[in-house]
Amino acid sequence: MILKAPFPWFGGKSRAAGIIWPRFGDVPNYVEPFAGSLATLLGRPHAARVETVNDLDCFLANFWRTIASDPEAAARNADWPVNECDLEARHRWLVAQTDFKERMKSDPEYFNPQIAGWWVWGLCSWIGSGWCLERRSGNQPKQIPDLGSAGRGIHRKLPHLGDAGREIESYFAALSERLRKVRVACGEWDRVLGDSVTISHGVTGVLLDPPYDSEEHSITYAAETAGVSARVREWAIANGDNPLYRIALCGYEGEHPMPASWECVAWKAAGGYGAQGDGDGRKNSQRERIWFSPHCLKTVKQQALTL
Predict the structure, then answer these.
(1) What is the dihedral of CA 29, 33, 36, 40, to 10 degrees?
(2) Domain ranges (residues) in the chain
(3) Which of 2, 26, 58, 64 sits between 20 and 30 A of 48, alpha carbons compared?
(4) Which ranges in 70-218 belong to alpha helices (H)?
(5) Residue 246: helix, strand or coil by DSSP?
(6) Calpha distance 86→91 (Å, rounded)
């Protein structure tokens, strides 16, 4: 069963999943160091095998831990109407949860359903970047909720299910079933790329979707690290010739100078507020690229050309 992510995510790869999985094939092991919305994992057309995901954002990791362990509690906390006053209050409260962040990084079994539910509720109500990020200026305007759509993520209508509460609970239960055996790490990206996590399990598909370079975008990530894109590229090139790796590296056109043995594929990202009008978001959606390592599978078209 292919599921959609329950929240909008800048840079999500739901549209790219149909390009990535034919190149990976039904690999016995899959690793995603920048988990985000897990759109590619959720779009996997094969039965789940060994799968490991990671993200530096504690709120995101907590949400996926909660969904895997207690989807009913996450649903109860996420079931709330869009309310501007509550959006501001919950944003302030979540930002102040410093003890939670430390515990997430020190206790691999810990998760907080209230924080998970409130976080995903707000993420689906918030416009643009800044959700759960501490504001550096006291003059920043209060964030108006999303009023320009019929609902995003958990707020969108799912007509095949029942009322709002049952919709979310059924949705989260399906996500929980899919993620039951997925290992969720919370930390730096390279922690899940050692041999013990990757090729010791056999042929490994690695999806590398690092934050865009700061000069390339105006979106602020909740857990961004300067220069990470270049370091990820270095790891990809260093490991690309290993036949046990099938690597997909994501970025903008021209962002990653790769060896000639890698194949670059263009694709178009989804819209969203940043892609409306003639702004940078619309232009950047045309610049999306995926570089595939030499041992990724060939497409049907490529195979025909070699016959």
Answers:
(1) -30
(2) 1-56+187-307, 57-180
(3) 58
(4) 71-78, 84-95, 98-106, 113-123, 164-179
(5) strand
(6) 8
Coil, helix or strand for 79? coil
Q: What type of residue is 276?
A: Q
**Residue matched to tokens 């919370």:** 186
> Contact 170/32 with Cβ under 8 angstroms?
no
Render each residue's pLDDT in the chain as its tens digit; 307 residues. 568 888 877 666 778 999 999 999 999 999 999 988 899 999 999 999 999 999 989 999 999 999 999 999 999 999 998 999 999 999 999 999 989 989 998 888 899 999 999 999 999 988 877 889 876 555 555 677 877 676 778 887 554 444 556 778 888 999 999 998 999 888 899 999 999 999 999 999 999 999 876 444 444 445 555 689 999 999 999 999 999 999 999 999 999 999 999 999 998 876 544 444 445 555 666 889 999 999 999 975 654 444 3
3-state DSSP call for residue 106? helix
> Is domain 1-56+187-307 given the CATH code 3.40.50.150 in the classification?
yes
Q: Which helix (H) or strand (E) holds 230?
A: helix 228-239
Placement of tokens 């021209």 in the chain: 254
In angstroms, rounded to a whole number, what is the distance separating the alpha carbons of residues 189 and 228? 9
* b/e 270-295 (16+ beta carbons within 10 angstroms → b): eebebbeeeeebeebbebbbbbbbbb
| CA-to-CA separations, 111 to 16, 47, 176, in angstroms, rounded | 30, 26, 14
Could you tell me which residues come within 8 angstroms of residue 270 by beta carbon, excluding any fewer than 6 positions away? 12, 14, 15, 285
Residue 271's Cβ-side half-sphere holds a number of Cα atoms within 13 Å equal to: 7
Residue 2, token pair as written in the block: 């292919």
Q: What is the DSSP string of 45-61?
A: -SPP-EEEEE-S-HHHH
> Distance (Å, rounded) from C-alpha 7 to C-alpha 153?
4
